[in-house]
Amino acid sequence: MEDTRAKKQKPTGAGGPGPLRRAGLAIGGALRLSPKSAPYYFLLPLGIVFAVFILWPIVWSFVLSFQKFEAGHYTFVGLQNYIALVKDPIFLAALRNTATYFLIQVPVMVVLSLGLASLVESKLLRGKAFFRMSLFLPSVTALVAYALVFKLLLNYDYGFFNYFLGLFGVDPVNWLNTAIGAKASVIMAITWRWTGYNMVIMIAGLQAIPVSLYESAALDGANAWKQFWRVTVPMMRPIILFVTITSTIGTFQLFDESLMLADGGPNNATITVAHYLYNNGFRYFKFGYAAAISYVLVIVIAVLSIVQLKIGGKDDET
User: Fold this and answer.
1) What is the largest CA-CA distance in the chain?
2) Taking the alpha carbons of 37, 43, 45, 50 in that order, is the dihedral positive or negative?
């Protein structure tokens, strides 16, 4: 009898196939998962979180952009919100302001970040870790905190900027209460914050360039300036393109500086698309109109990113 039971008992050790090898993963003796389907069950909680908190808000905001809140409930209005945007002077002003920040700040920041990265990685510079940390620190500063600090620095009566200009006999500048001064303030603030962040990315690209290329260029008689233009810039093209695209996306999502420095003023001179979206959604409670603004913003960013990819990657394709 004992021999018969021993024969019927299925081996479960390493020597036999075992239930895990024959039928996949068994949980609690009831649910059996094949090796092919088991990973999807483990990814299911992440998929649910993604669907609930990311995918569903995207879909619902798109549906909401075709609706309007009236008489206590949402009604379908078709393309009315999008048509209203074309005629909205504040939205057009916000779009122009954001485009101005993009056209001025992004090129300046890309050039500065590449230049600073080249200087920090120079063989003649000592204490590289200190300079990297010092230039990167602004990017980890709280957005509201650094915006308030800049608001104090740019104060007309006792700000440091006007005090510094006064040392050279320049009259005080009303930075935050004039259209040009307020725009310049926003550009200076975001450049100060994000240049160091992009510099670190540039440093990673510079460290990946083979030293042999610089040695060959030096043997051919190229000085440091020619090495920078003939070796560094061409080899850094993918990194420069990446920094340009990410900076473009960040600029078109600009919100904190516009709100904290000048609250979109004076006379909507500094308001951005993201700031106007916030005003419509959380100040005026026009969620359908705000959703329409968000999708216009997505389209603008997508178009600019595609154009930059086409221009920046043209040489790589050929």
Assistant:
1) 109
2) negative
**The pLDDT of residue 222:** 82
Phi, psi of 26 (to 5 degrees): -110, 130
pLDDT at residue 289, rounded to an integer: 93
Residue 104 has pLDDT above 90, yes or no: yes
The distance from CA 184 to its chain's CA centroid, rounded to whole angstroms, is 21
What's the pLDDT score for residue 316? 53
Whether residue 111 has pLDDT greater than 60: yes
The CA distance from 84 to 38, in Å, is: 50
Instruction: Report d(CA 124, CA 220) in Å as an integer.
Output: 22
Could you write out the three-class secondary structure of 5-29?
HHHHCCCCCCCCCHHHHHHCEEECC
Structure tokens at 141: 């500063």
The tokens for 81 are 């919100």
Distances (CA, A) of 114 to 77, 175, 218, 241, 305: 48, 28, 21, 12, 20
Contact indicator for 241, 106 with CB cutoff of 8 Å: no
- 270 DSSP 8-state letter: S
pTM, entire model? 0.81
At residue 21 the predicted structure's pLDDT band, cuts being 50, 70 and 90, is very low
